[in-house]
Amino acid sequence: MFIATTLLYPCVLAALCAGAGLFVDRISGRFLSPALLLTVGAAALIALSQLSTYAYFLAPATPYLMLVFALAGFVLGRARARAFLTRLRRSAWLAIVSVLAYALALAPVLLAGRVSMSSFMTLSDSAVHLIGADFLIRHGQHYTHLDLRNSYGQFINDYYNTSYPSGADTLFGGSAFLLGLSLMWAFQPFNAFMLATAAGPAWLLARRMGLRGCWAALATLSAVAPALVYAYELFGSVKEITALPMILTLGSLVLAHRQWLGAGARRAIPFGLVAAAGISALGVAFGAWVLAAALVLAVLVAGQLVGRRPRVGRRVVLLIGAGLLAVLLAAWPTWSDLSGSLKVANEIASTTNSGNLASPLRAEQVLGVWLNGSYKLAPAGSALTLTHLLIALTLVAAALGAVNLLRLRAYALAGWIALMLLAWLAVSQWVSTWGSAKTLMLTSPVVVLLAWAGVGALRAAPRRAISLGLAGALSLALVGGVVVSDAMQYRASDLAPTARYEELASLNSRFVGRGPTLFADFDEYSMYELRDLDVGGPDFVYPPPAVAGAASGYGQPVDLEKLAPSALSSYPLIVTRVDPSASRPPAAYRLLWQGRYYQMWGRRSDASAALEHVALSGSPAVQCATIQRVAQAAASASPEQLVASQAPTIAPVHLRLSIHPGDWGRERGALVMGHPGTLRASFTLPAAGRWDVWVQGDIMPAVHLAVDGHALATISGQLSGNSLVPDTVPAIPVQLAAGAHSLTLARTSPGLGPGEKGAAELDAIFLTPAGSRSSPTLRSAPVSRWKSLCGRAYQWVELLPG
User: What is the pTM of this model?
Assistant: First the structure.
């Protein structure tokens, strides 16, 4: 699976895009640069997948339509393909920098050596794109059969049935389905590939700025992956990452205006397709970037028309008409519900929800350098000083670059860059914090390229030795600042727990079609992994109304004890985490399956809802009094029964009494292991035997667990769906004597691997007798014999009808 998703999948994507690009090149008059084949091809495939899912009966055929389209391109454009390959052999820098960009973008996954997703806990919007891509390819844009009582149906309906941009999702879903890949694990390679396709147009722009060979390659790599863009790629901002190469391609087509602007009408097709792809991926707000390119082209067209014959004017009108027609047809699903598309764009622009941003991003982040593991936080100490120095150098380089463009008479490129900057400033004033951050990210590559134009200015300056030395120093600062910024984010990335999601996927195939299913944990990615079980999560953005009371709000822990017994009657299945400290579902459910991470509970076909369900706590004597009250409240006329869930024996490790570094802080009650150090704690066992050690928290870097000085396990990559619901690490068995014991948990110095500076938060450690991970014992008694239940500790008691 790792080889298929990280190596085979991008090769297949490249082949699909190249074939589609050759097809577009053929029908538009064979003028495209080989550097634009992948982006123009991706634009064409977005258009194809949008149209095939719009005609929803064709949706399942989308992967094969994409394949046929690409093969047709290779057949029709085989001569051009050979010519392009010859040109690439002469200058391999573009191919090298494209591969490097892909490897850099996917570095956390590649170096982890397992399928995963990077910056897992940053934002869960990726979960929406996973279920959307899957749904659109399987069902198309057809929503009447959705079950709106559960989270899965509400998410699909409230996003994709409201003209939410889906161009990136249909390209992603169609291409991944072609290889039969899990979208969960293909998602990050897809984002990395789309970012790498931006290398082609960035290369063309860098060459126009006077850069060649390795200089152009360094400029391209810096522009494709500046700090803010890298951050958005890491957390899977698939719409923006797909739109970015389209923006740069529009700039490259402006640059190549002499090859198509005054020619036949069909030569406007690539521009129209790229504009449509950006609109399909990002929404009608992408029109701001289309407008920037179109205004430059309008000035160029006006220059062509001055003093020319009427026939030239007619040719230009036809060219414009062809471009508009391409935009209309290729993005038809967007235009068919224009009012809905505009509404979505306005909601995104004006929302007060800033996502995961506690405060607006800083304007200087557009310069591509940010020496912090998080793009949301300002650098500190010496990193802040160095960041300011690199930003100042980049600003000086950008000023030199602007002068250089005028010296090179690259007026079209200069005009496009100026309008891009103007669009950034204008849009940032109009949209909310969340939208402004996206605009900042999409502008960053253009600003970085402008700085590299300053390197080109130094290389062309007189006094060759001095100017080359200055150019080398400046280029080292530019590329070094970007690479170090990206490396810091790479080390802070949180990778999705592969084994846990593979276990969820096995549940989907095992219980397919037996939903609806209640998911009693926070993890919105479960909607994809359990996509055939009609999942509802009480703490999701869209909780099922009937069970929303089981959580205190979005992302909060789920407590089934808060629900009336009848609220669960419509759920044949319940998924819970393997966690002996949590209560089991009501007696109406029995354990159907158990893995290392999850339990699947099924409702008995003959089970009636409990008349009363009461959570129990405190000593056995206190619980006995509660059981008595429940029994005495029963109606004496009916043969009612009491059922109680016996609580396991838990030996807690008291973390608040532990010895640990004083500057390990606390967050939401958890101990934050912010840097290397060792926690030392003690605990007492009531009996000798085999015990299970349970660790709860979100732990990305390796931490080492030992009891009585003997190493037990190394824990890493154990993360939950968010920081509010701690992850429960699978049980770690150990043979221990009765009495007092010592425990240590050590975080060592971070290495160079991904996530070495990721989340490290500890919520709890406790032990239970081996076997407590299974279903708790249920004890029952007639109401009249309620005293027989006393003397033990329970999780809850229920009053059942006879």
Answer: 0.94
